[in-house]
Design a protein that fits this description.
The structure holds 2 protein chains of 2 kinds. Chain A is mostly helical. In chain A, 71% of the residues lie in helices and 0% in strands. By secondary structure, chain B is an all-alpha fold. Chain B is globular and about 75 Å long. Chain B has helices at 9-20, 22-50, 66-73, 77-107, 113-119, 122-125, 128-138, 145-152, 166-194, 198-206, 211-239, 243-248, 260-270, 274-308. Classes of the chains: A mainly alpha, B mainly alpha.
Chain lengths: 279, 309
């Protein structure tokens, strides 16, 4: 249907180049800065390429910030626990909204979605009090409990639209055969919903990984629990910033989530969009 | 709607059972509902209570509407509110325009489109704080690539610190916020474009409609619902955007990037004025609620007009 002319094709690639430059420039700059010796970074005018570039910063970061590996582990760990906790609330609720009619359905669903309006930053003081009274300050839970809560509404919304597309007949026949509701949920619905669960799980994981900062800098003072987005600021000193190592640590820190994403991207991009839109 | 299936005996019975068992339904929803009440509901109520107190490090006392009066009489506050809405409108507008243009590009049948679709994602999936660190260096006036290239091209004479001046800091923060928000919007709009039935395009093509005409008359109307939903969601997130501003400028220079959320954080956390901070936090919630309501009402009106036509 209508092939592109050469002119249109050139225009498309040109526009794509501009768009991709906007998207990827910060990463490129990060990478280039990580390769430069610190003295070279403060050299003007700007040089794109020079001979003294090396991967030295990638070795030095582990000495400058000895806990760096721990921070990266914490980030992945926190995102995983956040995702698990979030899904344990999302799965039953999404099932209820996808399969049952009941009084108060649209009202409660609306309330869940309205939670999107509250940023964590708005509720920090009471959350701080709450976590303190539960004895959770300065623990992993101080970050993953509120973190999970703010991801629940979107999770319910996404998973609900998936479950709605699973034909109901299978559940019916299981019911006729005398299976219990819990059994049906565990052995019929969940296995069928695996693709949807992966999408919601990955989306939640990415959300949990991307948003680690505010709760970490507010509710946790202990370095051993700190996630990378908070811990990485140790490269920023009172006097000076070790820029090349800061950039190297940033690159290293985003590798885990990039790997997970590359591994699951086909699932994610397709699933996320289709599930959310055709519900 | 999901209940509509074959009209067999078994399924109608099943449906009846499903309907009758409200207990089971509430069992499924209650954990999530309780969790949300604990982490969002109760803190909201507590924020309302705190807003009527002078809570700080030294205890708290009920002081009635004093915080509200103080806030309404604060000469600087209207500027912060105005700036927040300007921040939101500008950033969301750019996100939607660039996101839609990006989706169009990603939807074009060109070589390498699968790779491009993956390449667009990183700003979204990488921790916001880390993405901002990259921008921090980009905006460096002496050694960043932006100033470097601009100097080479002779557009600026000397080093230019993007984050040091009031208006350049504001627009720089907007650009970074747009950068973070665009990929998700592009991907969702792309999906909407792909869900448009092919035969619509084919019919128009056979009738000799131009590419531009097909875009205007088929693509745009078909993706409109997604654009409308994403705009509202994006507006809410942008309004509440914290990390970008905090990491780039901490609200400075001289308050030029202080939005309501940054202002609230500073008041409550940095200055330990919990009561006064709570009042400001409620203003954020209230502004968003009013905005969302107006948006939905307007949307309804527009929808009705389209229907009657």
């Amino acid at each position: 249907m209508g092939k592109y002319t050469l002119l249109q094709k050139t225009g498309l690639y040109l526009a794509m180049t501009v768009f991709m430059t906007f998207i990827l420039l910060p990463f490129l700059e990060m990478f280039m800065a990580s390769l430069r010796p610190l003295e070279h970074l403060f050299r003007s005018p700007y040089q794109f390429w020079s001979n003294d570039m090396s991967f030295q910063a990638y070795f030095d970061i582990w000495n400058t910030v000895p806990m760096l590996a721990r921070y990266i582990f914490n980030s992945v760990f926190l995102a995983s626990v956040t995702t698990a906790l979030c899904l344990s609330f999302v799965i039953p609720a999404a099932y209820a909204y996808a399969r049952f009619h009941f009084k108060g359905k649209s009202v409660t669903l609306g309330l869940f979605l309205a939670v999107n309006m509250f940023a964590g930053a708005v509720l920090l003081i009471p959350l701080y009090k709450l976590l303190r009274s539960m004895g959770l300050l300065n623990t992993y839970a101080a970050m993953f409990v509120p973190g999970a809560a703010f991801l629940v509404p979107t999770g319910i919304w996404l998973l609900k639209s998936y479950l709605e597309k699973i034909p109901i007949e299978l559940e019916e026949s299981a019911w006729i055969d005398g299976a219990s509701r819990i059994y049906i949920l565990r052995k019929v619905v969940i296995p069928l919903a695996v693709p949807g669960l992966i999408v919601v799980g990955v989306a939640t994981f990415i959300g949990a990984y991307a948003q680690q900062f505010l709760f970490a800098i507010t509710f946790n003072q202990k370095r051993e629990f700190m996630p990378l987005p908070a811990g990485i600021f140790e490269f920023v000193g009172y006097q000076s910033v070790i820029w090349n190592q800061l950039m190297a640590a940033s690159i290293v820190g985003i590798i885990p989530v990039l790997l997970i994403f590359l591994f699951l991207q086909r699932y994610l991009v397709e699933g996320l969009t289709k599930g959310a839109l055709k519900g | 709607m999901t209940m509509i299936s074959k009209n067999s005996n078994s399924s109608s019975k099943w449906r009846e059972i499903l309907r009758s068992r409200t207990l089971f339904v509430w069992l499924l929803i209650t954990p999530a509902a309780l969790f949300m009440f604990l982490i969002v509901g109760w803190p909201l109520l507590e924020t309302i209570r705190l807003s009527f107190t002078n809570a700080g490090l030294g205890g708290e006392q009920y002081i009635g509407w004093e915080n509200y009066e103080k806030l309404l009489n604060n000469r600087k506050y209207p500027a912060i509110v105005g700036r927040t809405f300007y921040w939101m409108f500008l950033s969301v507008l750019l996100k939607m325009v660039i996101g839609t243009a990006g989706a169009l590009l990603l939807n074009a049948k060109i070589r390498g489109k699968a790779t491009f679709r993956v390449m667009v994602m990183p700003p979204w999936i990488v921790p916001m704080a880390i993405g901002c660190i990259g921008w921090l260096w980009l905006y460096n006036g002496h050694f960043g690539i932006l100033a470097g290239v601009l100097m080479r091209l002779g557009i600026i004479d000397g080093p230019f610190e993007f984050l040091a001046y009031k208006s350049s800091a504001f627009y720089s923060a907007v650009v970074t916020d747009v950068w973070i928000g665009t990929p998700m919007i592009a991907i969702f709009i792309l999906a909407a474009m792909q869900s448009v039935p092919d035969d619509l395009y084919e019919a128009a093509y056979v009738d000799g409609a131009s590419r531009w005409y097909r875009f205007r008359r088929i693509t745009i109307p078909q993706i409109m619902p997604v654009i409308v939903t994403m705009s509202l969601l994006s507006a809410i997130w942008t309004f509440n955007s914290f990390e970008v501003i905090w990491i780039l400028t901490e609200g400075g220079p001289r308050g030029a990037t202080t939005t309501m959320i940054i202002d609230t954080y500073k008041m409550a956390i940095a200055n330990y004025k919990f009561g006064y901070g709570a009042t400001r936090a409620l203003m954020v919630v209230l502004s968003l609620a009013v905005f969302s309501l107006l948006y939905l009402i307007l949307l309804n009106k527009v929808n009705e007009r389209y229907k009657t036509k």
